[in-house]
Fold these 2 entries.
Entry 1:
Amino acid sequence: METIGKILITEDEIADAVARMGREISADYDGKELLLVGILKGAFLTMADLARQITVPVEFDFMAVSSYGDATKSSGVVRILKDLDQEISNRHVVIVEDIVDTGLTLHYLLENLRVRQPASIEIAALLVKEGIQQIPIDVKYRGFDIPPDFVVGYGLDYTGLFRNLPYVSVLDPDNLPV
Ligand code: IMP
C-alpha cells in the first residue's frame, strides 16, 4: 500500500500498545463487568482491537459526536449525533477514544455521562497529543503520547479519508492531499 505522509506509529507498535491497554483494563476490572463506550467514528478500530484484548465480560455501546470547527481544529462545541442505547447508572464504563487533542470533546462527554451516575468512568485513548490539552483530562489507559501534529490512520480521518490506514501517519499541513 502506498503510504500517506510520514509514518509515526506502525501497525505492530499499535498492536503492542492495544494489547498492553487490554491487559491493564482486564487487571483493573477483574471480577467486574465492563461497558465499553466507543466514540464514533474515529474510535471504531481501537474499540474493535482493544475489546479483543480484554478478558473480563464486556458490553458495547457507541456515541457519535461531531465537533464544530474546521477540518484540522476542534472548536470545543460538541454535538451529540447518536446517544447511548443503554442506561449507564451503576455500570463500570470505559470511554474508548481515538485521540485526545484539546480535550474539549472528552471534557464535554465526561460531564454529560457523569450525570447519568455510572459506578465508575475512565478513558482509554490510543493517542494523546502532548502539551495542548486546554482542559486537563485524566486518560487512564493510553497508547501513545504524540507531538501536536495532525495525524491520520487507524480510525483518524482528514476530510473523511484515511481512516482505513493500518498505521498512524503525520499529515503535513502545508501539503495536504486535496
Ligand atoms: P479534542 O476535542 O480537541 O480533544 O478533539 C477530539 C477529536 O478531534 C478526536 O476525537 C478526533 O476526532 C479529532 N482530532 C483531533 N486531533 C486529530 C488529528 O490529529 N487527526 C484526526 N482527527 C483529530
Note: The pocket of inosinic acid is lined by residues 42, 67, 74, 97-105, 150-152, 156 (CB under 6 Å).
Entry 2:
Amino acid sequence: MLDKKIADMLNEQVNKEFYSAYLYLDFANYYADEGLDGFANWYQVQAQEERDHAMMMRRYLIDNGVRVTFGKIAKPDKTYKKHSDALDFGLEHEQFVSASIAEIYAAANEIKDFKTMQFLDWFVKEQGEEEKNAEDLIKKMKLFGGDAKGLYMLNQELAARVYAAPTNGPAM
Ligand code: FEO
C-alpha cells in the first residue's frame, strides 16, 4: 500500500500527463491548420507518449492497491501568434512537469519510499530527454525556421517522427 500523500500526488500527476497529451494535441491542431503537417505529426506523437506516461502511473497506482480517480482535464488556452510559440510553450511545460515529478520524488525520499523513487527514476530520465528535445526544436527553429525553404525542410524532418511504445519503461 502506498502512502496517502504519495498516492494523491501520483494521481494528480496522472491528470497532468493527460493534460500534457491534450496540450500537445492542441499544438498539433494549430500546426495542422497552418499547413505544417510535420510539426503537427511531431506533437501528435508526443501526445501519444504523454498518454503512455499517464497510463504507466495509473498502472503503478493500481498495482499498489490505490483506487485511481480522474479529475477534469483543463482546456488548453494557448494563443499562437507565430510558429515558434508552441515550441516555447512546450519547453516551459516540460520544465513544469519535471518540477512536478521532482516534488513527488522528494516526498517519496522523505518517507523512504524507495519503491516509488525507483519507479520515478524512469520519468526523471525521460524528462531530461524531453526537455532536451524541446530545446533542440527551439534551436532548430531559430536556425532554419526563418525562411520558407528552411521551414519546409524542418517540417519534413519532423514529419518523419514515428510513435513507438516504450520498451524500457514501467508497465502500462
Ligand atoms: Fe510526460 Fe512530457 O511529460
Note: The chain has five helices and no strands.
